[in-house]
Every structure is written in structure tokens, then in C-alpha cells.
Amino acid sequence: MKTSQRKDNPTLQIKPKVSETTSIWRHHHILDVDDFTREEIELVFHTTQVMKEVMSRPIKRVPALRGKTIITLFYEPSTRTRLSFELAAKNLGADVANLSASVSSVAKGESLVDTLSTLQALGADIVVMRHPQSGAPYIAAKYIEASIINAGDGWHAHPTQALLDLYTIYEHKRSLNGLKAVIIGDIMHSRVARSNIWGLTTMGAEVTLCCPPTLLPAGLSGQHRHLPSVSIQPNIELALDGADMVMALRLQLERQQSGLLPSIREYIQLYQLTEARLARAKPDALVFHPGPVNEGVEISPAVAHGPQSVINEQVTNGVAVRMALLYLLAGSQKQ
Amino acid sequence: MMKSLLIQGGRIIDPSQGIDEIGSLLITEGKISWLGKGEATPPQPDYDVLHAQGLVVCPGFVDLHCHLRQPGFEDKETIATGTRAAARGGFTTVCCMPNTNPPLDNQTAVEYVKSKAASEGVVRVLPIGCISKGRKGQELAEMGELALAGVIAFSDDGEPALNSHLMRQALAYSCAFDLPVIDHCEDKALTEGGQMNEGIISTKLGLRGIPNAAEEIMVARDLALAQLTGARLHIAHTTTEGSVDLIRHAKEMGVKVTAEVTPHHLTLTEERVIGYDTNTKVNPPLRTKRDIQALIQGLNDNTIDIIATDHAPHTEADKLCEFDLAPFGISGFETALGSLMSLVHQGELSLVTLVTKLTHEPARIIGNSYGRLGTLAIGAPADVTLFDPALEWVVDTKTFASKGKNTPLAGERLKGKVMATISQGKLVYKDDSIIVKES
């Protein structure tokens, strides 16, 4: 009895941090990484380390979010992201409820706003939202007092995925400054790529994008101030030269039907991350994939399961990063 | 018998007669009856007086492109609300697009709009008829009968004739009536699912882009078909630098083409979409500064003949949703002058050019079948707009006469405001500060 009580109440390690960090953390919502400073991302790293320590205990729970209601609102199917958030919330002692909405039944947008007002009325403190349309969480944030966490919106952003990727690099390299990061694949349709471009460059890494020109979104090579500057290298061997981290993106098989690719077969020939190609990167380069993996399409099984792969670490770290973010958001609500 | 009205001491700008000077204007029996320079007063003594000191007095604005939504979409706008909004914006003639339900592809539908306009409208409404039956782009509508019913042009509006053969026949057939064919230039294969201008902002926001080429391909095709047929072609809402170049070249080649640009495409860029305000969603989309520069250049060298609002009202519920699900369109009548005046204040456009593009030039495209429009000539219908070029005001959509509150300018300060609108001799809108006194 006594030991379990002690284990259920080790919040002292976390609590003092809140007062130290309030001056850095200023987010009521987490909509993208584009408005995160380097200091804020570092705060997420440090808080994540504490959460990983919590997760390593025999009883992985702290009651830091006891009494908070967290609702996951998913307009798009998801397995790992939703589960990751749910576990994160439960590890912190929050009450969690899940709502799946199908967009087909919600042809009109009032329903998004209506749904959110309902969640507000039900007492949600944090709403974790995934939506197939870019920008939907921004509209939601206008109509709800609860904090919104964007768990992926259309092609636009997936901030918690980017933060867990950054954290995983940080664990291995301790600093992202000057690292060469290569993102390979369907950049155009990838919210993971967009959020990682923001996060990686904020932390001082240099980003190279590698994809068929038909999967490269417009305007990246021109002069602009709307996205961080990135290098574009359609040749995968050249792109991988000297890389410190490599991310392969999932290729949707529909891309062939919509005329963006001649065939999946040719994509594999030109863009699959193979052992031979990975050898062009630094020997200690890390291999990422946001999942779910199409093994044998964008990445070979040998690389996905090879010694440089951190795909499983990404999943573990995902829970810890989401715990950190929920904790920081809940802390900001108290202010 | 209505008492005459003297509009006294304003800056009269009437490009149709080359007038730009201080003077007074008398309206009698719905027509312009006298025009005097400086301090001159009319010979007849009995009239009311509207003091116009400090105001521009010009022909009522003529809008070649708007959506009044009736019949079929009365929740968005009606002829009654739409014409009141037009009056507040200084427009005395508005040409309504046929994308109603049913569409204006037959005489009966056109007659319905005309009769509603006569009974419920406060400004002149001139309908535009369809090119094809049901706006389906397959068979020509009965264009001859539509012409007899009084349409001033033909257009399938948002459904461009993708079939080049049909477009050719529409242009050729229209020659019999000397009416223009208006095309909304969009290659739909390039714009499917598109939400905004294609470029770095669409990439940033993760929204599907609409490339300039989608417009320019259709502009180029239409210009070639206009040259082939010798017909009158009018390009709706030009938005890209490339389109301006194509039209300029075609005019040099003698193609009978006219072109329009909207206030929003002249004053707002794609950067407005950041934040996902669905009121910035419009088709064609807001483009870049570079395009705006080309459009202004086009206005100044007369490549672009007119400014038209493309007033496209939607309900709040229509726009209160995810960006991808929101309909395209901006409610434009009531902010048109205020936003266009920013170009005058910045020195991009002269006041006279602006008035020309809103009055004389669109009137020339319409022709004389509805009387002399866009002029203050003696004997012409008394369509007169008074505006204060320097008055600052804040856009408050709650005061809009339009049912469509969908403007990205809500809450913004504009400099330049319509103060009074006279349609066929009747004062259909006046600002509270305007007082009409007996002489």
C-alpha cells in the first residue's frame, strides 16, 4: 500500500518546473510548429525527458492532469496518433473521451463549429483534433475556449509528430544545429514534411527535400519569406550525401491514379530508401518514418528494421512528447 | 410631378464628355436637364438643393458583373437587397449573371428578373443570358430569343465553355445580335479541388493551388476564337500578369476584346488567405503583388477596359466552415469604391481613370439599348453618384444592405465613401450627413 501511494504521487519533480517555464511557454493552442521558438522547443524537450522518466516507472502515472477533460475529435481515421494521445492523457491522470466524426456526414461547416461548442459545453479542457482539411483547427480555435491540439490537418501541419521527430534526433545527437536533414517522398501532400521543415530549421538543421517534381509543392525555390528556405534535390543519391537524418514519407498508392506518378514501380526504382542509398549518408545517420510504413515502397524492409532505424523510438517518444505538450498546455490554462 | 434637384458645387467628373471641374447639375423628371460650371445657377428657380462641396459628382457606376442570386438562392441575396447594396456602393446599373436556379437560359427567366427588378429593385438591373442550355456547356441556349428578351451579353459564368467548338459557335452566333460573350476563363482540369492561388502561400497553408496558367490557357483560347469569328469577347475578372499580356497583344492585333478586373483582385493579395479566413476564398483567387502591378498597368494603358465587382454574396453559414468546403465569392458592392480609392490615394490610378472604368467604359460595352448610360449628358437618365474621396470609414458588415456579409475587409478602414446615389432621378441612397434643402 505504502509503496504504491508513493509511486502514485511523485509529482514534485514536475511541478516546480511550471513556474520556471511560464515565461517561455505562451501557447494556448498547438496548431503548428511555425510559431514555436527555439526556447519553446527546448522546453518541450526537457519536459519530455521528465515524462520519459515517468514512463520508465513501474506505474507510469502521475496525477498532473487529474480533473482535466481531454477529448479526441478525429475526422479522419488514425491508429497510432490517437492511441498515443489517449495513453499520454491517461498517464497524466486526465479523463479522456473519444469522438469520431465522419466528414461525409458533416458536409456543412456549421457542424464543425457546432461540434466544438458541444465539446465546450461538455467541459473539454483540451481538444485533440484531426481533420482532413487544412486549416480546420484554426477555425476551431476561433470558436472554442478549450485548447486545441492539431493532430494533423489536411496537407498542412502535424506539429506533435514534428516535435516527436525533433525530440528523437535530440536524444541521439543532443543538438540539431548544422545537421543535414533529408525528407524524401510525397512532400506535396505531407503535413509531416511541412511541420518538420519549420521545426528542423528553427533548431538550426538544414533541410533538403527529395521527390519527383510532381510531388513538390509550388513556390519553394523562389524568393519568399513564408516558409524557411530549403534545398531541393530530386536525385536521391545526391540528396543523401552526408545526411545526419533521413525521413521517408508514406506514398499513397492513389498518386499513380491521379497522374502524379507513372507507376509505383518507377517510384520504387527512383526514390525508395535502400541500404545502398543510405550508405551515402553519414554512418550514424538516423532513419525516420512517420508511419504507417509501406514497406518495400518508400523504404526497403532492411532499412526500416535496420540498425539506423528509429521508427519504433518515434512511437515511444510520441507518447512522452504528447504528455509534455498536454502538461504544458494544462499549465498555461491555470495562469 | 417631381421637383427638380440641383446638385450644387461638386467636382463634376464625366469622362464621357471630358468634364472634370467644379459645377452644378440639375435633374428634372428623371433626366439630366442642365449642367453649369463654377457658380452658375440654373435658369428655372424651383428646385431642391443638395450641397456637394468637397464631393465628386459623376455618372452612376455601371457594374458589368454581379450576382443577385434571384431566382433560386434568395437566402444569399435578392434583387431587392442586392440593388440596395448596389445603391450604397454607388452603382446605378448592375448586370446580373445567369447562374441562378433556374438559370437565365430562356426568355421566361429573363422576364422574371426584369419584372422583379422593376417592382422591387432600386437601381437598373440588366440581365446576362446563358451561352448554353442549363449552363451545361453542351448545346447553345436560344441566344436570339434571349437577345430579344433584353440580355446585354451572354455568359455561362462560373462554368466556362470547356468545349472549344461550343465556344466558337457561341461567339459566331452572337455576332447576329452584336452582343458580347463573357467568359470566366478557367481550365477546370488544372483547377480541380483548387482553393487559392498556387504558390508559396498555398504550399505554406497546405491548400490545393490554382495556377495562373489555368486562366491564361482559356484567355488565349478565347482570344483565338474571337479572332476567328470576329465576335465581341469580354474577359471576366482578369487576374494574372500573363492574361494582361495576352489581351494587350490581342488588342494590338485588332481582336474585338474587352476585359474587366475586380476591386479585390486589384487591392488584395494571396497573403490575405493566411489564417484561413473563408471570406478570402474567391474564384479566380487573390493573386500576387506582381499580378496586381500588371493589372493596374493594364487599366492605365486601356488593356483592361473596366472594373466590375463580381459581387458574390453568400450566407454566413455558407462561409462558416472549413476552407475547402466554403463557396467562392466576395460580397463586393458596398466596399468597391472605398477599396479602389486606395489605388488613387497611392497614385497608382488617377481619379478620372477610376471613374472612367466604372462608368463610361462599361456603358460602352452595354451599348444604348437601355438608353444612354454612364454619362451626365443633357437628356440622359439621371444616374448620378456622389462620393467623398477623402472620407475615412470602417467597414461594418452589419450595416450592409446586402445579405452577403462575406468580405475580407470587415473591420478595415477605407478612405473614400459613397455619399449619395441617384438612380433615374430618384435619390436611392444617401449618407446621413447629406441634406437636401428647398432652394
Description:
The complex is a heterodimer of chains A (335) and B (439). Chain A is α/β, with parallel strands linked by helices. Chain A folds into two domains: 2-158 and 316-334, Rossmann fold; 160-313, Rossmann fold (3-Layer(aba) Sandwich). In chain A, 41% of the residues lie in helices and 13% in strands. In chain A, strands 7-6-5-8-9 form a five-stranded parallel sheet. Chain A has a four-stranded parallel sheet with strand order 2-1-3-4, sandwiched between helices. In chain A, helix 7 (159-173) crosses helix 14 (311-334). Chain A is globular, with a radius of gyration of 20 Å. Chain B is globular and about 65 Å long. Chain B has helices spanning 79-88, 107-120, 143-149, 164-174, 188-191, 200-205, 212-229, 241-252, 263-267, 289-300, 316-319, 336-345, 351-358, 360-366; strands at 4-14, 19-28, 31-37, 47-51, 56-59, 61-66, 91-96, 124-127, 181-183, 196-197, 209-210, 233-235, 257-261, 306-307, 384-394, 413-423, 426-430, 436-438. The longest helix of chain B is centred in the middle third of the chain and has 18 residues, at 212-229. In chain B, strand 2 and strand 3 (31-37) form a beta hairpin. Helix content of chain B is 29%, strand content 23%. In chain B, strands 1, 2, 3, 4, 5, 15, 16, 17 and 18 form a nine-stranded mixed sheet that branches. Chain B has 439 residues and is α/β, with parallel strands linked by helices. Chain B has two domains: 4-57 and 381-393 and 415-438, Urease, subunit C, domain 1 (Roll), CATH 2.30.40.10; 59-366, TIM Barrel, CATH 3.20.20.140. The mean pLDDT of chain B is 97. The chains are: A alpha/beta (335), B alpha/beta (439). Chain A binds chain B through residues 107-110, 112-113, 131, 133-136, 138-139, 153-157, 191, 194, 217-220, 222, 224, 226-227, and chain B through 198-209, 211, 274-276, 317, 320-326.
